[in-house]
Amino acid sequence: MKQQQSKIFLLMFFFLSFPLFSQTEENIGSSDSIVMLLKEYSKTKDGNLPQKAFLIAEQTKIDSVLKKTYFDFGLQSYFNKDTANIKLTERKLQKLYSQTKEPATLAKRYYYKSLFHKVQLRADSAFYYLHKSKNISIQLKDSLEATRRLLSMAAIQFFEKDFLGSEITIIEGLRMVEPLEEVFFTGLLYERLANVLFITERQEEARKYYLKFFELQKRIPKVKLKYEKVRLNLHLAKTYEAEQNYTKAIEYFRKCLLVDSVKTKSTYRYEGALEGFSFSNFMLGNKKLALKGYLEVLKSRQARGHKRGLIFSYSLLGELYADDNKKKKAIFYAKKALKVAKEIRQSAKTSENLFFLSNLVKGEKGRQYLAARAMLNDSLYKRERGLKNQFAKVRYETEKKEIENRLLKQENSRRKLELERQRQQKVIGWLLAGGSLLFIGFGASIVFNRRKKMIFEAKLQQVAIREKERQQIAKSLHDEVAGDIRMLHLKLATNKHLEEAGKLEVIKENVRNLSHQLSSESFDSVTFKDQVINLISDFFESNIRIKIQEIDAVGWLKINNSIKRTLFLSIRESIQNTHKHTQATALVLEFRETKKAVFLTISDNGQGFDTAVKQKGIGLKNMQERIEEINGVFFIESALDQGTTIHIQIEKYGT
Question: Which of 190, 197, 332, 596 could lock onto 26 through a cystine, CB 3.0 to 4.6 A?
């Protein structure tokens, strides 16, 4: 019985594995296209690019390619704050999960759902889906993935002022990750724990964990330790500042400021160190030194548009001028701080500046500031209390469900034992049925591929018919229209109508050129390589160098003539564009072939253009339409002063 089952399993494995052996090479081009689209999306934030990448990935029908594409573009959508594509990623993962039933995919789906709510500033919903994602990772015994979710949960709790909840979440993460002896995420947990201890006024403990964090940073390869030392000293300085030990704080702030190139290489840390250095000096009575530092930090933050930092700069300047009895300036900067705080929804700083202004401004206006602050604080208190309760409720309900699940598992185990004997009798029958389904599926796959091939060949035939029509038009233009114009030109010249004859000569040349452009290139008598070389010779100029790479690596004799013509016309259009528009001195044509597709990359070193602003010209649009007409992929990559690269991929169905 066992030997028979083993043979059946081996047979099933063979049929399941057979289609996979031929997929690696043909998907190289698809992966390259997806990587290029991701780079473009990170630069341009064009919301259409993720959908294009998803389409290419889905055509491969490989789960690993699909998942990586969804994960990469979903995360980049979060960085771009592109809510539509975060939502699209979440739906794609839901569909993939419904097909594969892989819990890890469901965990990722919940993660991207949490990112969607995070961008929408819905902390409770973001926390809820992070919690669901984390629990699935725990069930899968993926401690590292669960730790990542716990880090994100702790961050939400910290920013919503649930410091106790954040501390509990961090400790849960440390219990999971420390046995793995992992460095990066363990260090981040120590740093976040130190932040909680700092904000809850446990500075000595905070310093201990900041130092543990730095020790782990030393073990990460390629980390620039001098900037990480700045990060550490900045943390330590803030703890001494919180203890009002301003002399000690200045010592550590100065260590940060003295690090070579920190101002340019780690600007935001330089700003934090200079601001802390200035504040500590202000508290020690060195107002002139403090003002100089505050103004430098303000200028730096204004230059890079760092709004959150500007709130602190404006607030500190307001306090300094108020202490110096310069009331107008104090009010001016306090109002600027209030405006930016409201703009980016920094409720705590809004409350602080309302209170500050209520003390500076007398009369009714001052009372209005105070009333607004009281109303805001009341709403903040209710929101913080509501979120803390919500976070606790999520944990309670999850723990309750876990207990119920354990009881259900025990009941299910008992039932499974009862059913096991019956299942064993049915296993062989199911395996045989599964083998039959595999044969049916394999046959259906063959039919599908044949149908796909027939559709592609029909498209190539349509292209060939149109080329024949163009050739007939070109022949008529050359033999009939140009001939008639030639006879009329001779008559005008004979009758000494020289001006009219000259204009007619121009028209004749235009008709002749048009007939040449419409005429088809024959790849039967002259090879594709020779046609390309002849084309380059026609466009030869001393100020531009055209280079061909790997053209002999492609088996052109087996490539359909319609595909070769499409590539030839694309090359011709690119050379013409290079001569007319790009001011390039070099053009490179690079060919590549896989089992299923042929690739052409055309790149120049010209002036380039911004693809997010400038639309494609008619030549490029025609090129794209020709390629996509035969199921090809066309992608253009360009930037100002960085040249232009065109990527073309055409599958070789029917060749």
Answer: 596
pLDDT in tens, 235-254: 999 999 999 999 999 999 99
Flag whether 333 is in a domain.
no
In sequence order, which residues have a C-beta less than 8 Å from that of residue 316 and are 6 or more positions away? 275, 278, 279, 282, 294
Identify whether residues 617 and 534 lie together within a single domain.
Answer: yes
CA distances in angstroms from 135 to 104, 149, 402, 619, listed in the order given: 11, 9, 10, 54
Q: Same structural domain for residues 458 and 539? A: no
Examine residue 167 and state whether it is found in any structural domain, yes or no.
no
Which residues span the domain enclosing 491?
403-517
Residue ending a domain, among 517, 549, 569, is 517
Shared domain for 503 and 618, answered yes or no, is no
- Which whole-number Å values give the CA distances from 10 to 15, 22, 170, 342, 352, in the listed order? 9, 20, 47, 66, 71
CA distances for 451 relative to 446, 448, 457, 653, angstroms? 9, 5, 10, 11
Instruction: Report the pLDDT value the prediction gives residue 291, as an integer from 0 to 100.
Output: 94
* pLDDT single digits (tens) 279-332: 999 999 999 999 999 999 999 999 999 998 999 999 999 999 989 899 899 899
Structure tokens at 135: 């629990």
Dig out the tokens for 248 from the structure: 């000690």
| Residue 258 falls in which region: left (phi positive, over 0), alpha (psi -120 to 50) or beta | alpha
Q: How far is CA 399 from CA 55, 107, 235, 470, in A?
A: 40, 18, 36, 73
Domain count of the chain?
Answer: 2
564 within a domain of the structure (yes/no): yes
Token output for 641:
């002063």
Question: Facing residues of 128 across strands?
Answer: none
The phi, psi pair for 297, rounded to 5°, reads -65, -40
Closest to 335 measured CA to CA, from 362, 357, 319, 313 = 357
Instruction: Say if residue 510 is in the same domain as residue 474.
Output: yes
pLDDT at 567: 87
- The answer on 502 and 561 residing in a single domain is no
Q: Pairing relation of β-strands 586-593 and 597-604?
A: antiparallel
In this structure, are 479 and 532 located in the same domain? no
Regions of the chain with pLDDT less than 50: 1-23, 654-655
Indicate if 488 and 549 belong to the same structural domain. Answer: no
Tell me, yes or no, whether 413 and 477 share the same domain: yes
Distance CA 457, CA 454 (A): 5
Which string of DSSP letters, residue by residue, matches 28-59? HHHHHHHHHHHHHHHHH--TTHHHHHHHHHHH
Task: Return the pLDDT at 531.
Answer: 83
DSSP string, 546-561: EEEESGGGS-GGGS-H
Which of 486, 517, 548 terminates a domain? The answer is: 517
Using alpha carbons, select from 169, 75, 167 the residue that is nearest to residue 118: 75
Residue 559 covered by a domain: yes
639: domain CATH number?
Answer: 3.30.565.10
Contact 650, 632 (CB under 8 A): yes
Q: CA 294: distance to chain centroid?
A: 36
Indicate the average pLDDT of the chain: 81
